[in-house]
Automatic annotation (TrEMBL):
<feature type="repeat" description="PPR">
    <location>
        <begin position="62"/>
        <end position="96"/>
    </location>
</feature>
<feature type="repeat" description="PPR">
    <location>
        <begin position="283"/>
        <end position="318"/>
    </location>
</feature>
<protein>
    <recommendedName>
        <fullName>Pentacotripeptide-repeat region of PRORP domain-containing protein</fullName>
    </recommendedName>
</protein>
<feature type="repeat" description="PPR">
    <location>
        <begin position="319"/>
        <end position="353"/>
    </location>
</feature>
<keyword id="KW-0732">Signal</keyword>
<feature type="repeat" description="PPR">
    <location>
        <begin position="248"/>
        <end position="282"/>
    </location>
</feature>
<dbReference type="InterPro" id="IPR011990">
    <property type="entry name" value="TPR-like_helical_dom_sf"/>
</dbReference>
<keyword id="KW-0809">Transit peptide</keyword>
<dbReference type="Pfam" id="PF12854">
    <property type="entry name" value="PPR_1"/>
</dbReference>
<dbReference type="Pfam" id="PF13041">
    <property type="entry name" value="PPR_2"/>
</dbReference>
<keyword id="KW-0677">Repeat</keyword>
<dbReference type="InterPro" id="IPR002885">
    <property type="entry name" value="PPR_rpt"/>
</dbReference>
<feature type="repeat" description="PPR">
    <location>
        <begin position="131"/>
        <end position="165"/>
    </location>
</feature>
<feature type="repeat" description="PPR">
    <location>
        <begin position="166"/>
        <end position="200"/>
    </location>
</feature>
<feature type="repeat" description="PPR">
    <location>
        <begin position="201"/>
        <end position="231"/>
    </location>
</feature>
<feature type="signal peptide">
    <location>
        <begin position="1"/>
        <end position="32"/>
    </location>
</feature>
<dbReference type="InterPro" id="IPR051222">
    <property type="entry name" value="PPR/CCM1_RNA-binding"/>
</dbReference>
Length: 437
């Protein structure tokens, strides 16, 4: 059955014979995911238009007709039917890459790499020239299947055929190679982009830097960094500046964190200064990484200065990790007074301590000592007085995990606070629901 509006049009204009363009537009509407349709019958309508109605008007399907129906079948998961229709299309003397592309995409989405390779070979055997879309479908699909090497091979073939890969294609290959652990190959691909007249964007650089930092190859990460900012690849840097492509805060943070984690504080400070010089505001991760690097290197005072600089600038807010890094440095330096001052500031700023915070102070006071219990009990009281019962409950759980039994007043305080919160919540709920009852 044809859609009602089309049938009415044919009856209203009996002498107006529909053209193939009319049917192609009709198929496009029937198969469009944007149009309201019954999933159970729209494909059957499309197939009836293709096999019965179009031939009934002495018309022959063209590449647009076949491509529309093939794409609908592939999107619906009927890949075998889509492949069969492609073979029928070729047998009818119609060859169109637009019909092969959705089937290749569906096959690779299902992980059928061999089937996709076979269909791609059949496509070329029948004289159908792959387009840039075809190659991009193959590259993306192979990367989804974890076949980064094969995707790289497709890109090489793409270049040999004179189809220039775009930034998106290069970026996808770089990302796929990094995910497979082939970071050096990813960097080579990024370097080739520049040779082909395409400047790697911040996504490509950030991806490669992330890969090297995660694998602990900081020297390579620095090489990528140097290629991006100056020195060894000045032409790349100038081109990036010319198109307004600059490292973002994420790129800086990743590199600073990686350098600090392997003890390369001097290099991290170099990157930090460059970040500030470019007017890029450090985020919480960058600040925390630098503070940690300074504290681990024994420069706790420098870490504190950077922490207060962070508070003064207001570009980023310290989180519990930032506080824990500094507290750990102060406690390891046996500077308990300043550690307690920082803890007080942490509470005043509304940042709740976590399990790591408690364990660091227990390490200082001793889990089995009276001082350790008194410290945690005091922390619970201060949190309860500030109405932060969830954080107080977490500290209480730390005590229980360490087999430290709180005094009865502490139990009473936590339980009373929780019960009060529940009563208040219940009262607010009743107040909210009253107009609807």
């Amino acid at each position: 059955m044809l859609p009602a509006f089309f049938s009415r049009s044919l009856r209203r204009f009996p002498r107006l014979a529909p053209t193939l363009l009319s049917f192609n537009l009709l198929l496009k509407c029937v198969c469009s995911s944007l149009a309201p349709r019954d999933p159970g019958c729209y494909l059957e309508i499309a197939l009836r238009i293709l096999y019965e109605i179009i031939p009934g008007w002495n018309l022959a399907p063209d590449k647009f007709t076949y491509s529309t129906v093939v794409s609908a079948l592939a999107d619906a998961g009927r890949v075998d039917d889509a492949v069969a229709l492609v073979h029928e299309m070729v047998a009818d003397g119609v060859v169109a890459a637009e019909a092969f592309n959705p089937v290749l995409r569906a096959m690779l989405r299902a992980g059928d790499v061999k089937g996709a390779a076979k269909l791609f070979g059949f496509m070329q055997l029948k004289g159908c020239v792959p387009t840039a879309v075809t190659y991009n479908v193959l590259v993306h699909g192979l990367l989804v299947c974890g076949r980064a090497g094969a995707a790289m091979g497709v890109m090489r073939r793409m270049e040999r055929e004179g189809v220039v890969p775009g930034v998106m294609t290069y970026g996808a290959v770089v990302d796929g190679l990094v995910r497979c652990g082939r970071v050096k190959d990813a960097w080579k691909v990024a370097e080739e982009m520049e040779k082909n007249g395409l400047a790697p964007n911040e996504f490509v650089y950030s991806t490669v830097i992330t890969g090297f930092c995660k694998s602990g190859e900081i020297d390579w990460a620095l090489k990528v960094w140097e290629a991006m900012v100056a020195g060894l690849a000045l032409s790349v840097w100038e081109e990036m500046i010319g198109v307004g492509c600059m490292p973002n805060a994420v790129s800086y943070s990743i590199l600073i964190n990686g350098l600090c984690n392997v003890g390369r504080l001097k290099d991290a400070m170099m990157v930090w200064k460059h970040m500030l010089g470019c007017g890029c505001a450090p985020d919480t991760i960058a600040y925390t990484s630098m503070i940690k690097g300074l504290c681990v290197s024994g420069m706790v005072d420098g870490g504190l200065r950077l922490f207060y600089d962070m508070m003064a600038r207001g570009d980023a807010e310290p989180d519990v990790i930032s506080y824990n890094v500094l507290l750990d440095g102060l406690l390891l330096a046996k500077d308990l007074p300043r550690a307690m001052d920082l803890l007080n500031r942490m509470l005043d700023q509304g940042c709740d301590p976590d399990t790591v915070t408690c364990n660091m102070f227990l390490r200082e006071f001793g889990a089995g000592e009276r001082k350790g219990r008194e410290f945690l009990e005091g922390l619970i009281m201060r949190l309860c007085n500030r109405g932060r019962n969830m954080a107080a409950g977490e500290v209480l759980m730390v005590m229980l995990a360490k087999y430290i039994v709180p005094e009865p007043p502490i139990w009473e305080m936590v339980v009373r606070d929780i019960c009060r919160r529940k009563r208040e919540h219940g009262a607010h709920t009743r107040e909210f629901l009253t107009p609807f009852v």
